[in-house]
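User: tokens in, sequence out, please.
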């Protein structure tokens, strides 16, 4: 079985050409049969023409137009379902990644906040001069060596 490309199957020009060709060929065959059979009267001839047109047109149109189109529709339906499935997976992954990112940002912020609360010893504030420490330093510097 030959698989045709979707663009060839769905071509509006191809569909129209096949439909016109099948209907024209069926009408020619129906008129030839009516000419040979020569039904009595207008309504029997019209009814015979309608029946023959349906019998002659439906099978080729089904094989050449409707079946390829139904296959194309089914393939597109499956592709859309696959896209929806992958979109759900991508959305779940994005939500998971966003949650991980928020947790990492929260952890980093807590770590930075902890650094601000406990400054390193080198950056710790030094005692101010004044009070007992200043007197001790001052009396030590004003004393004369003995």
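Assistant: Sequence out:
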């Amino acid at each position: 079985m030959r698989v045709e490309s979707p663009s060839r199957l769905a071509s509006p020009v191809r569909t129209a050409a096949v439909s016109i060709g099948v209907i024209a060929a069926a009408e020619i065959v129906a008129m030839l049969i009516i000419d040979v059979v020569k039904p009595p009267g207008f309504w029997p001839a019209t009814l015979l023409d309608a029946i023959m047109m349906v019998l002659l047109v439906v099978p080729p149109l089904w094989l050449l137009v409707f079946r390829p189109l139904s296959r194309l529709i089914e393939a597109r339906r499956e592709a859309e379902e696959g896209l929806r499935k992958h979109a759900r997976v991508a959305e779940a992954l994005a939500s998971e990644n966003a949650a991980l990112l928020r947790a990492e940002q929260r952890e980093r912020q807590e770590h930075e906040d902890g650094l601000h609360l406990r400054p390193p010893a080198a950056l710790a504030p030094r005692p101010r001069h004044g009070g007992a420490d200043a007197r001790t330093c001052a009396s030590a510097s004003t004393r004369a060596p003995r």
